[in-house]
Write a structure and sequence with these properties.
Layout lengths: L2 H6 L22 E7 L9 E6 L4 E4 L7 E3 L14 E6 L7 E5 L8 E6 L7 E5 L6 E4 L10 E5 L4 E5 L7 E2 L8 E6 L7 E5 L2 E5 L10 E2 L11 E3 L13 E7 L5 E6 L4 E3 L11 E9 L13 E5 L5 E4 L2 E4 L5 E2 L10 E8 L3 E9 L4 E10 L2 E8 L6 E9 L2 E9 L2
Antiparallel strand pairs: 1-2, 2-3, 3-4, 5-6, 6-7, 7-8, 9-10, 10-11, 11-12, 13-14, 14-15, 16-17, 17-20, 18-19, 18-21, 21-22, 23-24, 25-26, 26-29, 27-28, 27-30, 30-31
């Protein structure tokens, strides 16, 4: 019953020899990385990826009985060689997203990280540098997303992170001694990350990522003085009961804390906003707070201008009374060739869509699709690419919609 006897007797399938899983029977490539897809695999049908030295990336979906090999785009292909793949990473909650880090090829000398969104069938470059990415770490606090990534780059001299699927990168090397050889995460929901360096082991509990897509409901005239600020729910698992802190400021004043919420992805500003005299611009942003008390960077700012009693706004430098209702005017001139002016009125701020459609209802031209402030607006439409005939222009602003006919005569 001793430990030595347990292993010597081969209990539970233990063995003193290793069984080779042949990846490429012709070349026997040196393998540098393994990533296991355990999202739905069993012992009989194991799925995993391996990165090789000079032969790119391989994948098996049947425990190694058959392997698919991928040539990452722009590989040198000298003497049947491919890129060297140093690491492979995936998130088993979203296994279709896979990352592979590579060396720099002779053909494309600035690509060192690749991403597949269909389990390896297609690959696209997502990180361009003049060096090699040696290690990839999926951010441990975001178990349901493939957008959060940490990598070791610059020959072990730098750690970069991304929170938006590799669109933007931030240097998070900080005070780490270099070179850095490996990154590992705590297997629990805690977000602690470990780094193996030339001068020992280090760890960090990084702050959460900033909330995304902050927005407001200021287009509603009844709520403009008590606006609701909304944001996308954080995917981070390392969060306490209270998740978000909200801040605001007026014009160039300081940011002030106005509240915290744990059960919602929004907060209402209970302070009545007004602007006696000159109009004032109010800004809001949101920060995430984690279980360790770390605050994220602020979200994007939400801003809008408040006017005295909300009955007047600044238009082209002059104080004018706002329209009382939505309106779409007849274009002028009409008939026209080839330009005409379309005017409309908005009593409140609104998302505005203005499009040209044929007499049969087929969309021909999208003139405007954007958020516009309350007031009087005009847009010049150029129809030089259209043939003579009758057309319809349609305005949609909030719940308001109107159409009118115009005639082009060439």
């Amino acid at each position: 019953g001793s430990t030595s006897n347990f292993f010597a007797n081969g209990n539970y399938g233990a063995t003193n020899s290793w069984e080779e899983v042949i990846v490429n029977s012709t070349y026997r490539p040196t393998l540098l990385a393994i990533a296991l897809d355990t999202s739905g695999a069993t012992q009989q049908t194991e799925k995993y990826y391996v990165g090789s030295y000079g032969f790119g990336l391989y994948k098996t979906t049947n425990s190694g009985n058959y392997w698919a090999q991928w040539t990452l785009p722009n590989s040198p292909m000298n003497y049947d060689e491919n890129r060297t793949v140093y690491d492979v990473a995936l998130n088993i909650r979203v296994p279709s997203i896979v990352y592979a880090s590579s060396d720099i090829s002779l053909v494309s000398d600035s690509i060192c990280l690749w991403k597949s969104e269909n389990s390896g069938s297609n690959w696209n470059p997502v990180f361009t540098r003049s060096d090699t990415v040696t290690k990839i770490l999926m951010h441990p606090s975001y178990p349901t997303s493939g957008d959060y990534l940490w990598v070791i780059s610059s020959n072990g001299r730098k750690i970069f992170k991304t929170a938006d699927a590799c669109t933007t990168w931030t240097d998070v090397t900080g005070n780490l001694p270099t070179p850095i050889y490996d990154l590992r995460r705590n297997n629990s929901n805690d977000s602690i990350i470990y780094a193996a360096t030339a001068k020992g082991l280090y760890r960090i509990n990084p702050p959460p990522e900033a909330p995304k897509n902050a927005r407001s409901n200021v287009e509603d005239p009844e709520l403009i003085n008590h606006p609701r600020i909304t944001w996308d729910v954080s995917l981070e698992s390392d969060l306490p009961t209270q998740k978000y802190k909200i801040y605001k400021k007026r014009d160039t004043g300081p940011w002030t804390y106005i509240g915290i919420t744990s059960t919602n992805d929004f907060i209402d500003d209970n302070e009545y906003l007004d602007a006696p005299g000159e109009p004032t611009t109010v800004y809001y942003h949101v920060k995430t707070i984690d279980v360790a008390g770390n605050l994220s960077q602020p979200s994007n700012s939400v801003s809008f201008t408040v006017y005295e009693n909300n009955e007047q706004k600044i238009h082209t430098g002059n104080l004018r009374e706002l329209p009382k209702e939505f309106a779409l005017e007849q274009n002028y001139p009409n008939p026209f060739n080839p330009t005409t002016t379309i005017k409309f009125a908005l009593p409140v701020d609104a998302n505005v869509t203005l499009k040209i459609v044929s007499i049969l209802g087929k969309e021909i031209n999208l003139i405007s699709n954007e958020f516009k402030a309350a007031g009087y607006h005009e847009i010049v439409f150029d129809a030089k690419k259209l043939s003579s005939g009758v057309y319809i222009y349609k305005l949609t602003a909030g719940n308001f919609s109107a159409t009118k006919k115009m005639m082009l005569m060439k």
